[in-house]
Description:
29% of the residues lie in helices and 24% in strands. The chain is α/β, with parallel strands linked by helices.
Amino acid sequence: MHESSFRRMQAFRDTHLANRQAERLRVIDIGSQDVNGSYRPLFDHSAWEYVGADMAAGRNVDVVLRNPYDWRELPSRSADVVVSGQAFEHIEYFWITALEVARVLRPGGICCLIVPSAGPEHRYPVDCWRFYPDGLRAIARFAGLDVLQADTDWTGTGGEGGDMWHDSVLVACKPDTFSWRHEMRRQLLSWAVKRLAPA
């Protein structure tokens, strides 16, 4: 994790969770493995439960996900907050993962995705995508989430590493009336990916 990503997640916490200090919140971090740092310290609060989830066991991983497109280990509507930084560029079919984010969020729940808009290839094990604000808004719409923020640090002012990655940030909320169509879409796409994925 680079410094600018940590600072952007801190800004998300300070802006969107500041008035929820007394609430019991379950925060799930997707792609949580500690690679040069983690977001765990940002959510270390007596009333909050932080759960690190990743595709492989390691430091800062509480739950190992067996499938990036079908998180059976995380029940539906089990999270108040879902965060993820520097993960979506490594997910081949990220739009299906976005549907999983929406599935595990409770109605009224909020997510924050931090992704690069630039920077060199960094395979982990693959490096597939870069994201701009329009793309982030499209991801949210596809998953049935309401956009609260979608922007890119075009000037690279986010601190060390910001000049190279030009972080993009999506903050979105799951509406209280979540459409059944998004659940059907998630199931159909999950089925399709199982047939596309190499054996």
